[in-house]
């Protein structure tokens, strides 16, 4: 097993999906959480001045959360098992990343925050979740892509977890997706990780 | 070989890298270009209301240019041959997507657009390309990843092509990448494709 080190800030966002992959797979890794004060010194050592970055033994560092998640998914058997199934899987991953990136993380005014989130939910997120809910329900599987858990289910759980910091009720409109999130959260390795994470 | 149909607008944009892969691999596909006036009717029939979408035989349509690129790269052997090589290719594509998305192509206010474009170039695009150029030059290889043509080389080529719209001499700032792009363009199948493709600025 290679030596893994994940470099990210001490937040959930784009690093958490990756941490969840390691947790579910039961693979040890160094979870380096960068403090704001350390960042100016660390930034120029990263491939593109951003995080997350994955260090694998002494190989060139790997940047970009999507590339890291897909790679680890394949390495740990949390991928969808074929080029085409993986494509559908990563499509969903990219969609969650798209939506996650437009949330008003920096907005400090709670009234503005709430209003922005409501608008995003109404105009963008809920319509997409609606389509997903219908497809997922019609497919009749336990997981988003096929019959087994993939890194995309973990990314979806993370997306819902992060969004629930802004709005606690949105998932109640999507019962099959809600059930999926509960199934993911109940998995022993995930449950343990979430209980113990910073 | 499956039946492929790629649906996009009549521009390069988010479909061109896929088109380049089909061209280089010599794979026939239906290159469906949607006219502006037909889009409102077509939009609700797309999985997420966006383009490009790839149809593969009678399978569920595949949206998201990133997912399409990755799938086609794997199917047509532009994936570098290993999970790790593919991860580095993925990284390059994601960086290009990141920095490219900072350019306010849709901004209607000319002054804001100019300011936003300058910011995107100076604070995102040039720094990223500085890093890629440096690593590529130091590595001394002919291609970006895995010693052979991959999705990463085609993605850089496409980016350099459309970047001319916002910086006419863009890729010349990066001699090793410029040489790579010229090598890509000179490949017989790519050369033929470039000569015959519809001419659009972006």
TrEMBL record, chain A:
<feature type="domain" description="GST C-terminal">
    <location>
        <begin position="82"/>
        <end position="198"/>
    </location>
</feature>
<dbReference type="Pfam" id="PF02798">
    <property type="entry name" value="GST_N"/>
</dbReference>
<feature type="domain" description="GST N-terminal">
    <location>
        <begin position="2"/>
        <end position="80"/>
    </location>
</feature>
<dbReference type="InterPro" id="IPR050213">
    <property type="entry name" value="GST_superfamily"/>
</dbReference>
<dbReference type="InterPro" id="IPR004046">
    <property type="entry name" value="GST_C"/>
</dbReference>
<dbReference type="InterPro" id="IPR040079">
    <property type="entry name" value="Glutathione_S-Trfase"/>
</dbReference>
<dbReference type="InterPro" id="IPR036249">
    <property type="entry name" value="Thioredoxin-like_sf"/>
</dbReference>
<protein>
    <recommendedName>
        <fullName>glutathione transferase</fullName>
        <ecNumber>2.5.1.18</ecNumber>
    </recommendedName>
</protein>
<dbReference type="InterPro" id="IPR004045">
    <property type="entry name" value="Glutathione_S-Trfase_N"/>
</dbReference>
<keyword id="KW-0808">Transferase</keyword>
<dbReference type="InterPro" id="IPR010987">
    <property type="entry name" value="Glutathione-S-Trfase_C-like"/>
</dbReference>
<dbReference type="Pfam" id="PF14497">
    <property type="entry name" value="GST_C_3"/>
</dbReference>
<dbReference type="InterPro" id="IPR036282">
    <property type="entry name" value="Glutathione-S-Trfase_C_sf"/>
</dbReference>
TrEMBL record, chain B:
<feature type="domain" description="GST C-terminal">
    <location>
        <begin position="66"/>
        <end position="202"/>
    </location>
</feature>
<dbReference type="InterPro" id="IPR036249">
    <property type="entry name" value="Thioredoxin-like_sf"/>
</dbReference>
<protein>
    <recommendedName>
        <fullName>glutathione transferase</fullName>
        <ecNumber>2.5.1.18</ecNumber>
    </recommendedName>
</protein>
<dbReference type="InterPro" id="IPR004045">
    <property type="entry name" value="Glutathione_S-Trfase_N"/>
</dbReference>
<dbReference type="Pfam" id="PF14497">
    <property type="entry name" value="GST_C_3"/>
</dbReference>
<dbReference type="InterPro" id="IPR040079">
    <property type="entry name" value="Glutathione_S-Trfase"/>
</dbReference>
<feature type="domain" description="GST N-terminal">
    <location>
        <begin position="2"/>
        <end position="80"/>
    </location>
</feature>
<dbReference type="InterPro" id="IPR036282">
    <property type="entry name" value="Glutathione-S-Trfase_C_sf"/>
</dbReference>
<dbReference type="Pfam" id="PF02798">
    <property type="entry name" value="GST_N"/>
</dbReference>
<dbReference type="InterPro" id="IPR050213">
    <property type="entry name" value="GST_superfamily"/>
</dbReference>
<dbReference type="InterPro" id="IPR004046">
    <property type="entry name" value="GST_C"/>
</dbReference>
<dbReference type="InterPro" id="IPR010987">
    <property type="entry name" value="Glutathione-S-Trfase_C-like"/>
</dbReference>
């Amino acid at each position: 097993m290679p030596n893994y080190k994940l470099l990210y800030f001490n937040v959930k966002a784009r690093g958490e999906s990756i941490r969840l992959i390691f947790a579910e797979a039961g693979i040890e890794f160094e979870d380096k959480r960068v403090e704001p004060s350390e960042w100016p010194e660390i930034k120029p050592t990263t491939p593109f001045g951003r995080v997350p970055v994955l260090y694998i033994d002494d190989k060139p560092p790997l940047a970009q959360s999507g590339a890291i998640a897909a790679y680890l998914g394949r390495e740990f058997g949390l991928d969808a098992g074929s080029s085409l199934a993986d494509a559908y899987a990563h499509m969903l991953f990219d969609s969650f990343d798209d939506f996650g990136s437009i949330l008003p993380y920096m907005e400090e005014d709670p009234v503005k925050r709430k209003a922005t989130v409501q608008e995003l939910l109404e105009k963008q997120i809920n319509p997409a979740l609606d389509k997903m809910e219908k497809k997922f329900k019609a497919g009749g599987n336990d997981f988003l892509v096929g019959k087994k858990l993939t890194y995309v289910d973990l990314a979806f759980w993370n997306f819902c977890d992060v969004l629930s910091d802004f709005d606690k009720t949105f998932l109640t409109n999507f019962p099959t997706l809600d059930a999926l999130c509960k199934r993911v959260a109940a998995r022993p390795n995930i449950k343990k990780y979430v209980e113990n994470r910073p | 070989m499956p039946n492929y149909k790629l649906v996009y607008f009549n521009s390069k944009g988010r479909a061109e890298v896929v088109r380049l892969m089909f061209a280089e691999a010599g794979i026939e596909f239906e290159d469906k270009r949607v006219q502006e006036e037909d889009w409102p009717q077509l939009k609700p029939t797309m999985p997420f209301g966006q383009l490009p979408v790839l149809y593969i035989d009678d399978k569920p349509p595949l949206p998201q240019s990133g997912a399409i690129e990755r799938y086609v790269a794997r199917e047509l052997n532009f994936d570098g041959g290993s999970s790790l090589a593919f991860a580095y290719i993925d990284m390059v594509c994601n960086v290009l997507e990141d920095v490219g998305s900072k350019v306010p192509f849709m901004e209607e206010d000319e002054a804001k657009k100019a300011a936003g474009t300058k910011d995107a170039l100076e604070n995102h695009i040039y720094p990223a390309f500085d890093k890629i150029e440096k690593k590529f030059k130091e590595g001394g290889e002919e291609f970006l990843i895995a010693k052979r043509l991959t999705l990463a080389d085609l993605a850089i080529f496409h980016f350099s092509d459309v970047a001319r719209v916002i910086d006419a001499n863009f890729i010349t700032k990066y001699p090793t990448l410029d040489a790579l792009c010229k090598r890509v363009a000179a490949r017989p199948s790519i050369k033929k494709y470039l000569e015959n493709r519809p001419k659009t600025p972006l």
